[in-house]
Amino acid sequence: MHLSSFRFLHEIGSVCLFGILIRWMVSINPYSGKGKPPMFGDFEAQRHWMEVTYNLPVSEWYHNTSRNNLTYWGLDYPPLTAYHSWICGFTASLLNSSWIALPESQGIETPEHKLFMRVTAIIADILIYIPAICALVYQRRTFYGGFPYIIKICQEIAVALLAPAQILIDHGHFQYNCVSLGLIAWAVFAINRRQDVLSAVLFSLALNYKHMSLYLALPFFFYLLGRCGEAGLKDGYVCLSAYTLCESLPMVHFHVFDISPG
Questions:
Q1: Does 164 sit behind a cis peptide bond, omega within 30 degrees of 0 on the bond before it?
Q2: Cα–Cα distance between 99 and 118 in angstroms, integer?
Q3: Given Cys at both, which of 12, 176, 213, 235 links 207, Cβ 3.0 to 4.6 Å?
Q4: With contact defined as beta carbons under 8 Å apart, do 12 and 143 qualify?
């Protein structure tokens, strides 16, 4: 590896590690709803979804049953969030099954469980959001050269990774917005490489993780619609089909557009 390449990776790695450190420093503080029964805030909502998806069959995840009381943080995010919750719930069951003991664990606030939840949010950042931001910014390498290029890349990565709103909401208040944001970033990365089908799939995954991705639905749709003429009707149809496939599922449609909670 050339010295310049090593230096480049060192600089980017340092920025990423600093971003992770800031997330960890925020995460050691209290989360939203701590010590505030009966609902305990979004931290408890995410934990409750883990126990619901792990302990109940898929058919009950979104329905009010004797074992799934939807008035207590009913699962109201799209299915990809539910499967992510299942993965976290399965991991929790291996470490300490009392964390997801439905319904006995409602409102659990042990330090060990808080650590587990905080780590899951940081791991989601490390696996999805941070690599996506680095890859997307790295695509801009043709616009710079020499040492200023390294500085510019690191500055852009730092701006994205140190955004206060994303850090405070995900690692203070407690959410997993980094997953959908990371998938969107990967979708843009694919667009820049003219990998339209992959971009459509990635954005569909983001939309089926969290419905806040709807804010960007129209730009993606019209870009892919425009590509129909450039890439040919057949290729464009494939892209649009990948984009809209998941939206045809009744469960997704209902829970993304449901207005009953107010």
A1: no
A2: 14
A3: 213
A4: no
Would you place residue 171 in the very low, low, confident or very high pLDDT band (cuts 50, 70, 90)? very high
Reported pTM: 0.87
Taking the C-alpha atoms of residue 188 and residue 203, their distance in angstroms, rounded to an integer, is 9
CA distances from 162 to 36, 73, 84, 198, 238 (A): 29, 30, 24, 28, 37
| Distance from the first to the final alpha carbon of the chain | 57
Angle between helices 3-27 and 146-161 (to 10 degrees): 20
Determine which of 85-94, 99-108, 159-168, 250-259 has the lowest per-residue pLDDT on average.
Answer: 250-259
> What is the pLDDT confidence band of residue 60, given thresholds at 50, 70 and 90?
very high
* Distance, CA of 43 to CA of 31 (rounded, Å): 7
Cβ neighbours, 10 Å, residue 20? 15
Q: What does the pLDDT look like over 143-166, one tens digit per residue?
A: 655 566 788 888 999 999 999 999
DSSP state of 90: H
Rounded CA separation 134/147 (Å): 18
* Structure tokens that stand for 217 in this block: 């639905």
Tell which wins on pLDDT, 53 or 235: 53
Q: How far apart are CA 9 and CA 161, in angstroms?
A: 16
SS3 string, 103-145, reads: CCCCCCCCHHHHHHHHHHHHHHHHHHHHHHHHHHHHHHHHHCC
Residues 6+ apart with CB under 8 A from 121: 23, 27, 170, 171, 174, 175, 176, 178
Q: What is the Cα–Cα distance from 81 to 104, expressed in whole angstroms?
A: 23
Instruction: Supply the DSSP symbol for 77.
Output: S
